[in-house]
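Students often ask why inverse folding is considered easier than folding. One informal answer: many sequences map to the same fold, so there is more than one right answer. In these notes we will look at a single instance of the problem. The structure comes first.
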């Protein structure tokens, strides 16, 4: 029997070997032999082996591959030992089964198209091949085994189709389309891909009810009834599936009258535990989606969640924009607006306005030693004390970390304003009881400006208040000072920094540090970002946070930026290539102000020439949070830079902040840098993870490469590997370092073991 020919003899494995050890009790099960499992899973959508015991005449399944079970919506162990007939659709004609048996018994291979039966009772169309296997004993007295191979032919969404869907939806996101449009599009896609399905979407309204938003071709009131039922019954259920008979009678009957057999419910979840709504797929005949359909639905629901989250962010931005989230006081924007209005009213009413700038003394110190939580408690308590100190009609707002602005309308004179300041200083000096049982004391300094006529801008008034505050602090903190015309303290400081920065340029006080960027798949350093530092005599090494803004405001950023570009090029020219020819790419940051200047191009071209550098080794980073007015001017300069062959990255990128439109405008960019705040939330915050993964998918679909900034942990690095991110930058790989240290890292080149090498099993 060993050499018996079996039909077309195209088995992907050696049958006797596969069936070794298959003898035994009345019912035998072949262990999931790696050779069968692996080949079957790769070659076919499903494999089963069955046998018949001559004594009992009982046919049963001895092997069911994982993927066959999955195709049928079951686990292998739910099928093993059962009659092979359970695999086939109830509608399979008996005559067909008999014909198959006859062919197989003659030692031939039967190939037919037929339907299998899914756990949901739905039919799964397959091409099947059946054949008998030789027996396992050499004398031929063993039992016959039958091998069945299946290949699915049902019109399931194929991977290409899925990708196209995802791309379409992503494009809607890129183009900043309304949530409503994205929802309609999503529903249409689902209905196109899933035969017999109708897709409804409901969004959660402020009271927590699900509001029908997209209802397909159903009647509104039916969808509304279903959503109401879901609101009441299964608010926090994930992925429930309801058959029409499981629903309240009225709804169930109504659904049946539309031929709807089951509802698949998918929550649209957002950041934290917030639910944005649900997607309901109403299906004509199936209880559950097929695995490929499930995958499509899950992808779409994720896109919807990102879009919904963004819409929500935009909507709440209006409120957030005006109130400080910690203290609920009016924030800087709102208080400045109130200030402007109060100043405008001054002409009509004959009273004065007093503006008090309150600053907690050494609050940063307090935060550092006591922790930010204690700091927050103090700020909250302080905001309440300030509110209690002022009169009806006065306004308190928070304009900075530990700075508050008090607007006192209808003030008579400086004496009254001073006693108000006095009152505030005293109320701050009272001990603060913290929730951890300790009590702390602190002091505040107050700068006062009296305004008696319209005409001054809020910025001027704040400037004067800051200058008065400076005097109060100088006088020993814990007190107040009135602004005196001509003092212009703040302006003096600004002027001082400006002068010092000028000197810094000629005195060689500016330094570039370099932070390596690493290719994720190889773990190799491929370049670095140049980050400026100021080695200011008497002040130590200053971070850009303390002077870039002043440089931008005074226009000094233009010569400073030119220095950065030239210095970076000088350094690049000295970095050797790697043995395999890899050369580093250095990127520098550009401010909006630089982009508005024609001279930038001259600066770049002459730096490239002077240091003989190929433009493709120099990159520029432009922040996504650039102001709209600046964009138009920036675009043409950026186009020219990219025309030179330089690389261009959009810095601080993050979907969800209404800035996707910029991506279209910055179409000359080749890279996006995902903001470190999102990378930080990877794996911790669903929203951040969704944003990072959507940003990566988005970049892919637009052919951009993706850099993740601020990678601090191995977990984040591995998550980025999985999401297909190209480049990583962050403390995990290297901090910004001096040029010599950066060069040493470049020589070392491999800065981290790639995920795959650390985890060869791909877990
Ligand atoms: P940026 O362009 O977003 O630069 C990245 C900043 O993130 C750097 O701060 C870097 O030290 C920091 N960083 C890098 N990896 C990590 C990490 O894993 N965790 C955390 N928490 N931080 C990380 P830096 O050097 O203080 O620069 C701050 C900003 O100053 C830069 O932000 C950039 O906008 C600006 N800047 C720096 N150099 C220049 C320059 O030459 N010209 C202009 N116009 N702006 C510059
Ligand atoms: Ca940057
Ligand atoms: Ca950045």
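Output (designed amino acids):
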């Amino acid at each position: 029997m060993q050499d018996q020919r079996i039909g077309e003899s195209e088995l992907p494995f050696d049958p006797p070997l596969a069936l070794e050890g298959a003898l035994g009790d009345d019912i035998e099960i072949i262990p999931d032999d790696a050779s069968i499992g692996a080949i079957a899973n790769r070659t076919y959508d499903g494999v089963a082996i069955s046998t018949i015991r001559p004594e009992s005449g009982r046919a049963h399944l001895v092997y069911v591959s994982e993927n066959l079970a999955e195709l049928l919506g079951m686990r292998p162990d739910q099928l093993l030992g059962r009659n092979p007939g359970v695999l086939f659709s109830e509608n399979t004609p008996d005559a067909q089964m008999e014909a198959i048996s006859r062919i197989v018994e003659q030692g031939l291979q039967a190939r037919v198209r037929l339907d299998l039966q899914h756990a949901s009772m739905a039919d799964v169309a397959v091409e099947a091949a059946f054949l008998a296997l030789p027996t396992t004993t050499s004398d031929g007295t063993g039992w016959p085994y039958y091998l069945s191979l299946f290949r699915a032919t049902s019109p399931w969404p194929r991977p290409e189709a899925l990708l196209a869907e995802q791309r379409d939806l992503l494009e809607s996101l890129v183009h900043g389309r309304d949530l409503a449009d994205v929802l309609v599009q999503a529903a249409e896609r689902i209905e196109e891909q899933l035969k017999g399905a109708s897709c409804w979407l409901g969004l959660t309204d402020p009271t927590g009810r699900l509001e029908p938003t997209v209802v397909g071709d159903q009647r509104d009131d039916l969808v509304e009834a279903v959503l109401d039922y879901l609101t009441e019954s299964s608010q926090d259920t994930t992925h429930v599936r309801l058959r029409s008979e499981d629903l309240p009678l009225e709804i169930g009957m109504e659904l049946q009258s539309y031929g709807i057999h089951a509802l698949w419910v998918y929550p649209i979840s957002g950041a934290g535990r917030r639910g944005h709504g649900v997607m309901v797929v109403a299906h004509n005949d199936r209880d559950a989606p097929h695995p490929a359909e499930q995958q499509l639905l899950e992808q779409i629901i994720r896109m919807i969640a990102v879009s919904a989250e963004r819409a929500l962010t935009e909507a709440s931005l209006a409120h957030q924009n005006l109130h400080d989230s910690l203290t609920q006081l009016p924030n800087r924007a709102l208080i400045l607006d109130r200030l402007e209005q109060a100043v405008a009213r001054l002409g009509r009413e004959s009273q004065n306005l007093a503006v008090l700038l309150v600053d907690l003394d050494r609050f940063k110190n307090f935060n550092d030693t006591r922790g930010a939580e204690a700091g927050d408690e103090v700020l909250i308590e302080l905001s309440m004390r300030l509110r209690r100190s002022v009169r009806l009609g006065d306004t308190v707002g928070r304009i900075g970390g530990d700075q508050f602005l008090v607007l006192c309308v209808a003030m008579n004179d400086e004496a009254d304003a001073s006693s108000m300041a006095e009152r505030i200083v005293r109320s701050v000096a009272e001990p603060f009881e913290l929730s951890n049982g300790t009590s702390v004391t602190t002091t505040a300094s107050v700068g006062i400006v009296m305004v008696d006529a319209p005409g001054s801008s809020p910025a001027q008034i704040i400037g004067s208040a800051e200058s008065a505050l400076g005097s109060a602090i100088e006088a020993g903190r814990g007190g107040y000072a009135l602004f005196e015309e001509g003092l212009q303290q703040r302006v003096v400081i600004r002027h001082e920094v400006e002068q010092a920065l000028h000197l810094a340029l000629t005195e060689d006080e500016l330094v570039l540090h370099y932070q390596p960027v690493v290719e994720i798949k190889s773990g190799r350093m491929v370049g670095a970002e140049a980050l400026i530092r100021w080695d200011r005599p008497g002040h130590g090494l200053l971070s850009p946070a303390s002077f870039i803004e002043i440089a931008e405001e005074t226009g000094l950023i233009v010569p400073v930026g030119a220095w950065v570009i030239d210095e970076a090029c000088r350094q690049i020219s000295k970095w050797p290539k790697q043995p395999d020819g890899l050369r580093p790419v250095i990127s520098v940051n550009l401010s909006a102000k630089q982009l508005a200047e024609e001279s930038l191009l001259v600066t770049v071209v002459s730096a490239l020439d002077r240091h003989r550098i190929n433009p493709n080794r120099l990159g520029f980073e432009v922040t996504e949070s650039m102001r709209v007015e600046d964009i138009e001017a920036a675009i043409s300069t950026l186009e020219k830079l990219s025309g030179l062959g330089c690389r261009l990255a959009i810095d601080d990128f993050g979907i969800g902040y209404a800035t996707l439109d910029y991506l279209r405008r910055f179409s000359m960019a080749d890279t996006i840098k995902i903001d470190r705040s999102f990378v930080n939330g990877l794996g911790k915050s669903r929203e951040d993870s969704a944003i990072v993964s959507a940003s990566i998918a988005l970049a892919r679909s637009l052919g951009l490469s993706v850099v993740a900034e601020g990678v601090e942990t191995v977990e984040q690095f591995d998550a980025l590997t999985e999401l297909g991110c190209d480049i990583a930058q962050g403390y995990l790989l290297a901090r910004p370092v001096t040029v010599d240290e950066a060069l040493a890292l470049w020589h070392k080149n491999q800065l981290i073991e790639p995920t795959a090498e650390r985890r060869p099993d791909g877990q």
